[in-house]
């Protein structure tokens, strides 16, 4: 057997593998003998068929199998032994190969492969990338806090309907309904507020709700079945009045919300509320930063791709691809391949990896936050461990978690390596920044604001406008981060 290397050019090389009969004859002979022992040939007992007949039936296919295995094995051995880094899978060169299993005993395989291009990754030469931090608004924080206060609030049944109550009613022929008073229009609230259990209220429901959606929800009618011309006038009998009094933010409240005592003071709870709101938007800002960072790297890192090889590879590996379609889409392909090379270099140099322990911690925290947030994690450790072990058996879920954690680490790496400009603002500011469309109040105007960070214990009074949030812009260099 002979293996030789030829350079088509600096970007593409060729490996020529010459295989003679001596290279595979012994292996084929051994396989034929094994086949004879088990072959079921009409007219002969198992194991007694003549070898000549076995060869006629199986030899050519066995030669093909053995030769292809030798060609593949020697190709990849050559690449590994010579420490050649390559892109994509090597492709056979038909015009330089001699492979005729019907008539020949010797074979020549010619493969071409693209050498992985060398390039410098100088992060200091990449333009500044804006990193936007979405600040929680006072309204958002208050809504988050009120959600917890509502969850741990006291549910009572008052004698009369109030502005924030909910009521259960019967109407029509044995129909039941549930109404939040806050979903009613002014006309509806005037008719309902102050009424007691068992009182009957005549309502034209079309005018009693804030909008059609709430009316359809009450009537349990789909949009297709809703009659826009009907008044839906009914006598409603109040059967139950419910009132939820929000819990006070105090020591007892904090013990219920955080049984592990991770949050003990109102100030800590305020900070927690702000962090939770901002975390909800972090994925969006991370995605925007990641896209901008990747674009900056692709546009500014010089990599000479083996374009001709890549075009041939795409056409050969994708039966639905046409030359015309490839010409129209190749620029996007090239950008994707450039990013793969850059990403590999970044992650290899920084040894980014996601461990199974990290995946299990993610799953454990998911269960705690969504199902066991009222329990001390130490006390339910065994139960959590069982749930985690069950969860990691689902490969697709594990893969999704792996990808999410990997992306988080990659974004953190990009932030660490690249020169960034930090901007802060509200969600509206971020949307304006991401879309290029101006918000009602521009980021530049908000830079002059002196508003302090919102406090969870404060609420926005009805009709009061929340103070504008402060924004800032700061260039962060690698040197700054190290310091």
Mean pLDDT: 86
Number of domains: 3
Structural class: alpha+beta
Largest sheet: 5 strands, antiparallel
Indicate the percent of residues in helices: 40-55%
Please, could you describe this protein's structure?
The chain is of the alpha+beta class. It has 3 domains: 2-115, 2-Layer Sandwich (Alpha-Beta Plaits); 123-143 and 260-482, no CATH class; 154-245, Chitinase A, domain 3 (Roll). Helices cover 48% and strands 16% of the residues. The strands form 3 sheets. Strands 6, 7, 8, 9 and 10 form a 5-stranded antiparallel β-sheet that branches. Helix 9 crosses helix 10 (323-350) and helix 11 (356-370) crosses helix 12. The two termini are 59 Å apart. Mean pLDDT is 86; it is low at 441-479.
List keywords for this structure.
four-stranded antiparallel β-sheet; alpha+beta; Chitinase A, domain 3; single chain; 3 domains; five-stranded antiparallel β-sheet; 483 residues; Alpha-Beta Plaits
Task: Describe how the helices and strands are arranged.
Elements: E1 2-7, E2 12-19, H1 21-38, H2 51-81, E3 86-92, E4 107-115, E5 129-134, H3 138-151, E6 154-156, E7 166-171, E8 175-180, H4 186-192, E9 200-204, H5 205-208, H6 212-219, E10 233-245, H7 251-257, H8 266-300, H9 307-317, H10 323-350, H11 356-370, H12 381-391, H13 395-417, E11 420-425, H14 427-435, H15 443-446, E12 473-476, H16 478-482
Parallel strand pairs: 5-11
Antiparallel strand pairs: 1-2, 2-4, 3-4, 6-10, 7-8, 7-10, 9-10, 11-12
């Amino acid at each position: 057997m002979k293996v030789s290397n030829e350079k088509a050019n600096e970007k593409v090389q060729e490996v020529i593998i010459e295989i003679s009969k001596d290279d595979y004859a012994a292996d084929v002979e051994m396989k034929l003998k094994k086949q004879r022992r088990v072959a079921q040939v009409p007219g002969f007992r198992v194991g007694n068929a003549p070898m000549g007949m076995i060869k006629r039936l199986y030899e050519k296919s066995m030669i093909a199998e053995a030769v292809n295995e030798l060609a593949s094995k020697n190709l990849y051995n050559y690449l590994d032994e010579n420490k050649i880094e390559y892109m994509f899978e090597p492709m056979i060169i038909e015009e330089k190969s001699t492979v005729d299993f019907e008539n020949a005993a010797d074979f020549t395989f010619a493969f071409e492969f693209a050498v992985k291009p060398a390039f410098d990754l100088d992060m200091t030469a990449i333009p500044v990338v804006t990193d936007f931090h979405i600040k929680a608004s006072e309204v958002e924080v208050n809504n988050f806090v009120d959600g917890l206060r509502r969850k741990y609030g006291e549910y009572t049944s008052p004698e009369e309907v109030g502005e924030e109550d909910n009521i259960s009613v019967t109407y029509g022929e044995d129909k039941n309904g549930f109404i939040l008073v806050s979903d009613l229009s002014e006309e509806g609230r005037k008719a309902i507020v102050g009424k007691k259990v068992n009182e009957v209220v005549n309502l034209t429901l079309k005018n009693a709700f804030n909008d059609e959606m709430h009316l359809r929800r009450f009537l349990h009618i789909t949009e297709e079945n809703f009659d826009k011309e009907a008044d839906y006038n009914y006598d409603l009998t109040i059967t139950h009045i419910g009132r939820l009094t929000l819990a006070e933010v105090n020591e007892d409240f904090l013990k219920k919300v955080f049984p592990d005592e991770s949050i003990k003071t109102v100030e800590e709870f305020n900070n927690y509320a702000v962090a939770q709101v901002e975390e909800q938007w972090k994925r969006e800002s991370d995605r925007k930063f990641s896209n901008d960072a990747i674009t900056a790297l692709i546009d500014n890192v010089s990599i000479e791709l083996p374009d001709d090889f890549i075009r041939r590879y795409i056409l050969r590996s994708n039966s639905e691809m046409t030359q015309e379609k490839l010409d129209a889409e190749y620029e996007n392909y090239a950008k994707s391949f450039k990013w793969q090379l850059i990403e590999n270099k970044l992650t290899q140099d920084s040894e980014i990896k996601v461990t199974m322990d990290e995946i299990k911690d993610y799953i454990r925290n998911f269960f705690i936050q969504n199902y066991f947030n009222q329990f001390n994690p130490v006390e339910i450790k065994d139960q959590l461990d069982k749930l985690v072990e069950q969860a990691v058996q689902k490969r697709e879920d594990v893969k999704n978690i792996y990808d999410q954690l990997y992306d988080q680490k990659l974004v953190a790496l990009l932030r660490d390596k690249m020169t960034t400009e930090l901007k802060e603002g509200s969600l509206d500011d971020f949307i304006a920044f991401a879309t290029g469309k101006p918000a009602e109040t521009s980021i530049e105007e908000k830079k002059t604001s002196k508003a302090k960070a919102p406090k969870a214990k404060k609420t926005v009074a009805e009709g009061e406008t929340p103070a504008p949030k402060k924004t800032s812009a700061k260039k962060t260099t690698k040197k700054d981060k190290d310091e």
